[in-house]
Structures are given as C-alpha cells and as structure tokens.
What does this fold into?
Amino acid sequence: MAEALTGEAILAATEEVLRRYGPAKATVVDVAKALGVSHGSVYRHFPTKAALREAVTRRWLDAIHAEMESVLDPQASAGDNLRAWLQHLFDRKRLSHSDEPELFATFKVLVSESTIIPDYHLGHLVGQITRIIQAGVDTHEFVTDDVRTTAQAVWDATQVFHHPAHAQEWGNPHIQDAFDAVVSLVVAGLRYNRIPSATGDA
Amino acid sequence: MAEALTGEAILAATEEVLRRYGPAKATVVDVAKALGVSHGSVYRHFPTKAALREAVTRRWLDAIHAEMESVLDPQASAGDNLRAWLQHLFDRKRLSHSDEPELFATFKVLVSESTIIPDYHLGHLVGQITRIIQAGVDTHEFVTDDVRTTAQAVWDATQVFHHPAHAQEWGNPHIQDAFDAVVSLVVAGLRYNRIPSATGDA
DNA sequence: GGACTGACAGATATTGAAATCTGTCAGTCC
DNA sequence: GGACTGACAGATTTCAATATCTGTCAGTCC
It folds into this structure.
C-alpha cells in the first residue's frame, strides 16, 4: 500500500508522539497508530522501546552538537570563542526550556533514563571545549598543564547554566549576570591555571 | 504526668520519625505517637505540618552553617581558606550522601519543598564565601570589582560539588580530581577577575 | 520470501473505593 | 485557665481489581 516503513519515518512519528503525549504516556502502540501500522512492525526496526527512545534522543543531540560546532570562529580569540560557545549553549537550553517546556522536559527524561547517552553528549561537548582551550594554549592566551582536565573543569563550573536540573533558576532575571560572572572567573582562571599534581606543587 | 511538651522535644521526635519513615511516609500522627500525645497537641506548637518540617530543616542547616564557620583559619591565605572551605563542604555533603543516604534524601526533599529555606541556606553560605574573598581582596591576593557577585560566581561554579541534584556524580572515583580542577580554575581566576560592567569594558 | 499482522503472556499503569491523614475546635482535666 | 484530648470534615494516600502496554512469534499477504 503506502511506502515501505523506514526507521526514519518511525523516528519522526516517535518524536511527534513524544511531543504530543509526553515521555510518560507515549507508547509504542501510539507510534504504530500514528503510522497506520501494527506495533509489531515497529519492533521490526527497533529491538525495544528503550532503543527507539534512545535513537530519537541521539538524533536530537546530534543536531545540538552540529549547531554548537558552527558557533566557533577561527578568527576570534580563544577567550571570545569560549565565551560565545558557552553563551550559545546557555541560550539554546534556556530558550528551549521557556518556549517549549514540554519538549524540554521530554528530552530531560529521555537523556536521564539512558546510561550511554549522557556520556555521549558530555564527551562530545567537552571535546569541543577541549579544542577551544587547546587553541588558546597554542597562542599562549591560556596556560594549563592538562587541557582535557581543564576542559572538563570548565564544563563542570558552568553546569548551572546547562544542566536541566538547574532549569528553574534560568528564569531568574539576574541569571545573565550570574552567567557573565562565572564565565569571567573561568576565563580569567584559564589565563593562568595549574592543576595541583600528586607530586606536590600548589 | 510527664514533662511539659516542648517545641524542642517535638523537633527531636520529628527528626527521628523522618529518619525512620522517610519524608514521604512521616506523618504528624507518627510524631505524636512517638511522643505519646495526641496529634492535636503538636498543632499547639507548630501551625502546620510544613512549618514543623521547615523548623527541623532549619535546625539541621544551622548546624552545617556553624560547622562551616569553624573551618576558616584567620592565619591562612584567602586561597587556602577558600579551597579548604569548599573541600569541607564537599566532603560533608558527599559523606552524608554515601553514609546516610536516606537522611540525605530526606533533607534534599525538605529543602526543595520550601521556598525560603534554600534562599536562607544559600544566602548564609555565599555570605561566608564573600568574607573569604573580601579578606583576599584586602591582602591583594585576589582582585575583583564586586566581591558579592564574585562570591556568588564561586558558589555557582562549584554547584556540581554541593547541589544534591548532582549527588550521583559524587560516587565517581575521579570526582576529587574534578573538584581540584574546578577549584584551581576558580582560585586562579580570583587572582585577576573583572566582571564586565554594563558600561562596556571587557 | 520477506514485510507485516494480530493474538498472546507477563509486566506495567490506571482507577476508584476504602483507609488514613491534616488541621480544627468544643470539651476535659489538672 | 491553659495544656491537652479526641471526634470530625475535607483532602490525600493506599490498594487491589481492571485495563493497557511491551515484546514475541506463528501465520497472512503481496
């Protein structure tokens, strides 16, 4: 009858069902209904409901990763790049939270229920920060013993501005000031930062 | 018959009931039963169940505040004081989370269900950080335009190590390294940090 | 013959009736 | 007369019956 059922079509339908019903109520039966097929057919493309949800989540995160990649400007200083990158991530998350709260909550649940997805997301974004900092070290704008560890520290220090657990604080009218203060502190720290090693030397 | 029923006795009994039953199951009737009185008597001392819970929480937080105060060493440098203070807060929360997970979860719920308690706790601890940083500014160890804002930034940047939403990450074997990296970055930043003002001047 | 269906077993979620809890207050007891 | 009791109304929670969902697979249909 209609075109063959593809994984892509199932992902799109799943996203729509998640958007409409939310993560708690969206069922595989709903997805099948939306596609006009039996739910058994969905299991022909995805082994479990969890795998289906994970595939949708990964697709969504990949879009963010690509978008973040595009923020970087090879001409700009590392400090400016880092600030712009963090600002863009914060704006992206904050807007998503305020403008489409249900979708934001949906992906918050989807990300938290997987064990590998958070590592995937974190690894990718910390990798981008690592590259920004490495560029800064190359031009002697930044100083650090261990770029990777420092990148993780930048990520950790800015958790309040991207971790969904802190989303309610993003509505605070002074949140941009708080963001600027943290980023200034972090960027100032990158200009001369040594991580204490086990062999001594504070 | 027995001694008169005091607010203090009710608070102690409430803490015990919370410890035993958890925040979801602990009832005012349980507290009254533990004290051998009718639950109406409890309402003679606390207007609502919420007020009772809040009083217990405040007592618990006040103990932490006093303990944190005692960490400060007037002889030490501001950097060392800040590092020790943050380390102590982190250790305190991490130990509480691993050694008495139910009690930790209980107070996490109690703190989150109040509107004024989190502000109270945050205001007090950021106040302590403010004093540490001010001492550093006085000795020219630290540089900052706005001590209070910078103190808030230090608090925000270290949220991963004290906000209960991140408690699950505290079990990670490398968490102390992550802590050291963030604190080093922050302390390095304090040595020269200017918060961008609305009038320009990056 | 390979994509799809639909009935099925066990697991999970929903529902509403019954039980418990919160907060009040007239009354008891020293 | 002031601290305490206990019965009460309305709100919330519990629990078990009922319905729905997940994942499987033998069978259907182009």
Summary: The interface with chain B takes residues 149-150, 152-154, 156-160, 163, 165-166, 177-178, 180-182, 184-196 of chain A (CB under 8 Å). Residues 4-5, 37-41, 44 of chain A lie near DNA strand C (CB under 10 Å from a C1'). DSSP finds nine helices and no strands in chain A. The longest helix of chain A spans residues 116-138.
